[in-house]
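Researcher: Re-running this chain for the archive, since the previous output was lost when a drive failed. Same request as before.
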Amino acid sequence: MINVTSKKVSPSIDKWLKEAKSESKALNEGMYLVHNGIVRQSSRAKVRQGVEDDNVKGMDFDYDAAKVDQSVAETKKMNGIFHVRVWLNQGQLEVGEDIMYVLIGGDIRPHTIDALQFLVAKIKNDCVKEIEKK
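Model: Regenerated structure tokens:
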């Protein structure tokens, strides 16, 4: 169920990176990747399937925290991954507002890219509920 009153304040990516780089595991990391998903005006159907559709005015967004935690744990087990951090918004979001941030720290580019793609896909496909408002 969507809790429409629990919209959150977006995190500071500069702070996240500073914290990640201060950890002992950071000495093994060669790169960080950040994903920032935001509410877009064009609908999912229009973007992914080319279907003409009304513009999105906002989104109801919620997530299953246990599933997110499990997805993060799986990502941390991936080869070459040393840092994983996720923030998800919640509630009624407007176009342009942040939906999620994901930070991945890994040893080399292929490992880090693979982990980011894996985790964002897991979150989007298995952990969240998004309802576009038109």
